[in-house]
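Tutorial, part two.
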Amino acid sequence: MSQSISVLVVDNETGFAELVAEMLERERDDVVAEAATSGAEALEVLERRPIECIVSDYEMPEMSGLELLERVRERDPELPFILFTGRGSEEVASEAIAAGVTGYLQKTPGSEQYTLLANQITNAVAQYRTKIELRESERRYERTVATLHEATRGLMRAETKSEIYRRAVETAGEILEASFVVAYAFDPEAGVLEHVASTAHDPVDPDGTIERGEGPIWDVFSAGESATIDDGTGITGARTMGPSEALVPLGAHGIVVAGAADADGFDETMTELFHVLAANTEAALDRAEREQLLREHDRTLTRKNEELTRLNHINAVVREINHGITQASTRAEIETTVCERLADTDRYRLAWIAEATTEPLEPRVWAGVDATYVDRIRDDDRPPEAGVIERARSQGSVQVVENVLEADGWDRRRTEALTYGYQAVVGVPLSTADRQYGVLLVHVDTVDAIGDGEREVFAELGETIGHAIRSVERTRSMLSDSRLELELVCRDERLVFNWLGERIDGPVTVDGVLDRPEETVAFVSAPLETDLEAVADDRAAIQSATVLSEGEDERLFELTITALPLLDALRTHDVQLRSATSDGGETTLVLEVPQATDARSLVESIREEYPDTDLVARRETTSTLSAGQLDTYLEEELTERQLEALQAAHYSGFFEWPRESTGEDLSEALDVSPPTYHYHLRAAERKLVDLVFDEC
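Running the prediction step on this input gives:
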């Protein structure tokens, strides 16, 4: 049953006041209304018992409605006060609002006015009760926060961890009014949670410990995320104390658990304060550890000296690796040199390189380990190394597993780690700014041994290896006339060209693309009657569509596309898009692929974005002028603006006669001035002419 609403109706006409009270009670079952015939009588009622809403007439002898409002506001500034008057004018309404009435309603014939009045009363009282509850809650909160602040000062003054845990448990029991509070500390050597403090009603054996993986307390601690158990099982597996229990980890130190005494469990405010206490406790434990570390200053210095020694060691190894890869002429030689030099040290037990996108995991080059170990990795359907490789690839940064004997998922490598003598694993991405060549896995002999300095050195080594591989592959491409041509058919609706093909009567041909940093400019041919500009308005990925020229049978459009994942996959593998034709929701792509590129990896990366893609043809091609040589020359000799200007001119028919587009059209498409565009185009043309005559 809902709480009743006490209403006082004030009107100098006795019969009308009683009528209003009766009608309000009819409208709302939870309204209990009382009539008063004057402001003085109303004030007397307020003295005798609590009233939650006053409904008053405006014009009354001796004391008007607004004068009564003023007296009421002196007692309770928030008490709902609704002016219910027969005088209806803007002047009266303005005066009432200025005086601070909660509501204003004009008396009218009929019963509808009582419905409106009852609604105003209900809404006003609901807000009034909310404010009162909020004030009371704030007062309780302030008292609790004061207790929490005092406890925090005590935590920060505590000299030992045991004292910190004891104070935390006592404070939690006080501020939460919990049925029990218990704290556990983590013993890193034994790998268990040990009971360290509790209230008198602790439902858990105070002499016991919680083993690894034993029950919800361990689960919450290992996950590092707070949790609430309210499913009836409790932390002991049987409901004996309270309706719910809150479990809050204390970082790496342990965990504190509290049982709610109230049937509703802990409310949001108490839960927040519990987390604040836990954070303060964790900070106090951190401080205690820091003070202990200060007392172990000599050992800290020793560790730092050891780290410096390791850093000098890896720098020496890196110098050897750099010297070796500068002499290598193939990717295989580079990777073999890296793995062998790293494995040929006392600190790094073994090293191997794997592709970052292949499934199952496929080590490509390795050293310091036999083929049996490599085969075990290949046959593992859930290799823990795959997570390190994926994080290194996706984040583009060095990843470290500090201790494989304790890290999640690495229990399957326990035997190998003990056999080969490694305890930590480092994943190093081998990459350039726009290309990835796999991940280097280095297995280290000691636990928690990879400092920031060593991470930086590994990161620089990964970039060096990536650039070295890129350099030898580009050189190989320049020296080889042989190219691989792949023909794919994509039916995936997410490919923007398929979307266009479904909405255009006839084929859509991509004559060329300009791959810019934040957008792609595509030159597209479509049937003459096509209104591509209107079609493109329905696709958010197409920023603009502009007609560049018209021929006898087709139009040439320039499309500015904000997102085209296809080009990202091609760019990553140094692949050129030679042609793309879409018709009826199906696009045929012809790609020119360097021989060194893994075609399967390329196709799979395209399928990640467009699953409905099939490889339909694979052809070997040769040319008298190496496409790789020309691509490399254009990339190295032409600036980005010069290459854009040249591509735009070629794809838009600028070199045709009569010209299909003008320099002014292209300068507008590239968002530069016409003189600037012509300057870049002339510079690109001059460099191409120099290439022709120099080659001759």
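The first strand starts at residue 5 and ends at 10. In part three we will examine how such features are distributed along the chain.
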